[in-house]
Amino acid sequence: MEPYYSDQARYVNMLEVFRARSVIYRDIQRTLLHEYSRLSEELGARVFVKHENHLPTHSFKVRGAVNFMARAPREVLENGIVVATRGNHGLAVAWAAQKRGILCNVVVPEGNDPEVNDLIRAYGAQLIEHGADFYEAQDYCEELAENAGYYYLRQGNEPLLLTGIATMGLEIFEDLPEVDTIIMPIGGGTGCAALGLVIKHINPDVELIGVQAEKMPAFYESWKKGKRVTVPRSDTVAAGLAARSVFELPFTILRDTIRDVVLLSERELMDGVRLALRYTQNLAEVAGAASLACAFKIRNRLKGKKVVLVMTGSNISSQLVARILAG
């Protein structure tokens, strides 16, 4: 790992996670961990859903954003912030920045979901459309940070984001200390790595299973090869899983803590949204429902276990909902 990231990794620890918990509960509440009897009966296990979709901005990422904004360095307060996103990260940062009165610029790729764009504006951020994909939006953030003096908040490699998100793991262990398996989607790896950090220090015997789209298996390929891999650009219905590479800090944590990665086809990913509606009566985004789709795919491995499925978010466009429900 580069020296910069080695230095940053020192701040991703359990002391910082507990500090984050005392900060974020000023603005957000614990999320529900609920066992659905029909889901448990169907899968032959005790299955619990962690409802991160019930948070403000309807995604787990707001945990990290609130932690960062509450402890933002002076340059953020004075100059403002810029972030690149396709959705949940930008929504979370915009919401948390508005709470603190911090200037927030959100860069999205051209052609980004207009419903997401409207929500970002509603949280008081300046929306900038630039680039063909998330990675070109990231490059533009680098330019803005250099030329306009904004603080560029990189969503995967900021310790305060990771330790804020890790409070989700504390809640899982507090509500279900005897958990056997946790299933979590992986895009850039921040959320899953945050869980991996908590598992490592509380109960390393807990099995952490990641879920990715077959079309975008960046972490899966990196994990198999033992080094970060960038996969070719591809379209997947799961915007939250559309990462061509995993971030440096999450990869460092996950390569030693994750037990398995399950790849889902586009059909299986869309089935997850229907499964979430059928068994939990929650409308989840495609990435947010990936843990349910994974559980059905590997159901034989889960029998008799206590399993937590993380429903990471519910920001899904009305057009995509109609398409999925139409089959």
Automatic annotation (TrEMBL):
Full protein name: Threonine dehydratase
Keyword Lyase found: yes
Keyword presence, Glycoprotein: no
Entry superkingdom: Bacteria
Cofactor(s) this protein requires: pyridoxal 5'-phosphate
Residue ranges constituting the Tryptophan synthase beta chain-like PALP domain according to the UniProt record: 27-313
Any one GO molecular-function label of the UniProt entry: L-serine ammonia-lyase activity
CDD domains on file: Thr-dehyd (cd01562)
Taxonomic source organism: Thermodesulforhabdus norvegica
Keywords: Lyase, Pyridoxal phosphate
UniProt-listed InterPro entries: Ser/Thr_Dehydratase, TrpB-like_PALP, TrpB-like_PALP_sf
GO biological process per UniProt: isoleucine biosynthetic process; L-serine catabolic process; L-threonine catabolic process
